[in-house]
Amino acid sequence: MITVTPADLQDRDAARDVFRRLCLTQPQITQVWTDRGYVGDLMDWARERLWLTLRIVSRPKGTKGFGVLPRRWKVERAIGWCRNARRNARDYERLPQHSEAHLNWAFITTMTRRLARKHPAPRWTKKSAPTS
Q: Residue 34: helix, strand or coil by DSSP?
């Protein structure tokens, strides 16, 4: 689910609407992994109103500089994929709905290309040469 908001709106403030839409369209999702920006009242609200558990992914204590964090790297990777679409490299759109449509289009293009490509055989299916 993609939601584009103005830069002066905190993610935490937009999250209530996103979580409501998520629960309406994907009721089987009961857990969401987030960063520390979502700590606070939002966690209680999501649990009480939507029966949604927010799990916080934190940096390990004592870590300095860049470090790959479990679960969060998937989001960063996906953002990198959608930035490959030239139109999404800059903010050209006047309306947030247009930006959302172009992001969805970029993800659909990425996924159809991945589904259509011919994959090499997985390692576990390759037969080893007989030894004599």
A: strand
Give 88-101 pLDDT, tens digit per residue: 666 667 788 888 88
Q: Which residues are within 8 A (CB) of 31 and not within 5 positions of it... i.e. 6 or more apart?
A: 52, 53, 54, 55
Cβ contact 44:19 at 8 Å: no
Q: Are 15 and 42 in contact (CB under 8 A)?
A: yes
Nearest to 46 by CA among 30, 60, 35, 59: 30
Looking from the CA of 73 toward its CB, the CA atoms found within 13 Å total 6
Predicted TM-score of the model (pTM): 0.69
Residue 79's Cβ-side half-sphere holds a number of Cα atoms within 13 Å equal to 7
Residue 59: partners with Cβ closer than 8 Å, 6 or more residues away: 67, 69
